[in-house]
Amino acid sequence: MVKHASIISFTFIILFAVVAGLFVVSKQRETSIVRLLDSHTTADQIVGVDKAKGKPFNELVILFEKLLLKQNDASARAQEVLVTTAFSEHRVEDLSTLPIQKELLEAVNWWNEEHKKTTRFAPSNALLVPSLHQVAWLTGVEDPPMFDVLIETSVQDRDGSVVLGVLAIEKFTTEQQRNTLIQEWTTDYDFARQKSAVLLAMLADTSFEFPHTQRQALSTLQAIQKDSDYLLAWRALHDEDGMIIPDIALAGMLANEEKFFPILLKSVKENKWQHPEHPILIASYFAPEIAGKLPFDFLQNSETRKKWWSLYTCGLLLERR
Fold first, then answer.
1. What 3-state class would DSSP assign to 211?
2. How far apart are alpha carbons 149 and 259 in whole angstroms?
3. What stretches of the chain adopt beta strand conformation (E)?
4. How far apart are CA 229 and CA 220, in angstroms?
5. 244: which strand partners?
C-alpha cells in the first residue's frame, strides 16, 4: 500500500510539474508576443503578428488594438490574420467595427456574400486582349484548338514572353504530348520554344537536364528549373525598365509558390506588369477555384481590375495561403 501510494504521489508530482512548465512556457510566449507587438521596429511587429496566429478572434482584437492604427506592413499583416480568423469563427460582421482597410473590408464582405451563393460567374466575350488566341482559350471564351494548331500558334507574346502559350499548352495537351514537346523544343532553332521547353518541364515537375546555353534569359530559366531557385527568380524578375519579366515570374511561382505568391501580388499592386493579362492568368493557374468565382467583367479595365485583384487576394487569405 505504501509503495502504491508513493507511485501515485510521484505521478501527481510529475503531472503538476508538466502543467506548471506548460503554464510558464505559455506565459513566456504571451509576454514575447506583446513585447514584439509593442516594438518600435516593423520587423519585430510582423514577427509578433505571426506568433499570434491561431489565437481566438477576441484575443487578437486586444493584441492588435494599437497595431491596427499604424500604417505599415505589420498593420496590414495583422488585418490579414484578423480576416482569416473572423471567417473561421464566423465573426465577419465584427470586422466592420475595427480599423480595417476599406478595400480589404469590401473584399471580405463580397466573399462572405459569395459563400451564400450557388451560382458561378462564367467568362463573357469581353476579352482582355481580343487579339490573343491564348487568352481566349485559357478563359474559355473560345474552344481550344486541335493539337497541331495549338503548337503551330506562336508561343511568343508581344513582349517576347511565352507565359500565355505555355499555359495554354499545359492545359490542353496530354502528358505524353508535353514530354515530346520538351524533348523537341529543347534544341529548336526558335528561342521562344526553347524557353517554353524549360517552363513546360517545370509545369510537369520533371528534372529534365537542359544543354548549356550562352543566352542569359534561357540560362536563368534553366537555373531556376534545375534547383527550384525562387530567390534567383526574385533577383532576375525585373527588366531594365523595372517592369516584370513574365517568364521569370511564372518560373518563380513554379519554383516555390508559397514564397513567390506575395511577390506576385506586390508586383501587381505596384503596376509593374506591361500587360495585365499575364499576372491574371498566372494567378488563375495557381488558384483556379478562387479566380473562377470572380466576375469576369471586372477584367475589362484598370479600375475594375483593381477590384478583381482585391477579391482574389482576399480569397487567398480565406484559404490561408
1. coil
2. 36
3. none
4. 10
5. 238
At which residue does the C-alpha cell 509545369 appear?
203
pLDDT at 131 over 60: no
Cβ atoms of 255 and 228 closer than 8 Å: yes
pLDDT beyond 90 at 182:
yes
Phi–psi pair at 313, nearest 5 degrees: -60, -40
Q: What is the pLDDT of residues 290-318, one digit of tens each?
A: 998 888 888 878 888 999 999 999 999 98
- What are 195's three cell numbers? 524557353
pLDDT of 238-253, one tens digit each? 999 999 999 999 999 9
Q: For position 14, what pLDDT does the model report?
A: 56
pLDDT for 18 beyond 70: no
Q: Does residue 88 contact residue 105 with C-beta atoms inside 8 Å?
A: no
Q: Which pLDDT value is given to residue 295?
A: 86
Q: Under a CB-based contact definition with an 8 Å cutoff, are residues 29 and 21 in contact? A: no
Looking at the chain, the number of H-run helices and the number of E-run strands are 17, 0
Instruction: Measure CA of the first residue to CA of the last residue in the chain; give whole Å.
Output: 57
The single-letter DSSP state of residue 153 is S
CA distance 63 to 78: 10
- Say if residues 306 and 312 touch (Cβ distance below 8 Å): no
Q: Which residues 6+ apart lie within 8 Å of 305 measured at CB?
A: 276, 280, 298, 299
Q: Dihedrals φ, ψ of 238, to 5°?
A: -110, 145
Cell triple for 22: 506548460
What's the one-letter identity of residue 109?
N
Ramachandran region, residue 94 (left: φ > 0; alpha: ψ -120 to 50; beta: rest): alpha
**Residue 319 cell numbers, joined:** 484559404
pLDDT score recorded for residue 26: 43
Q: What is the pLDDT of residue 284?
A: 92
Residue that wins the pLDDT comparison between 129 and 49: 49
| Nearest residue to 87 via CA among 113, 67, 63, 118 | 113
How far is Cα 276 from Cα 196, in angstroms, rounded to an integer?
20
In our burial notation (b when 16+ CB lie closer than 10 A, e otherwise), range 149-162 reads ebbeeebbbebebb
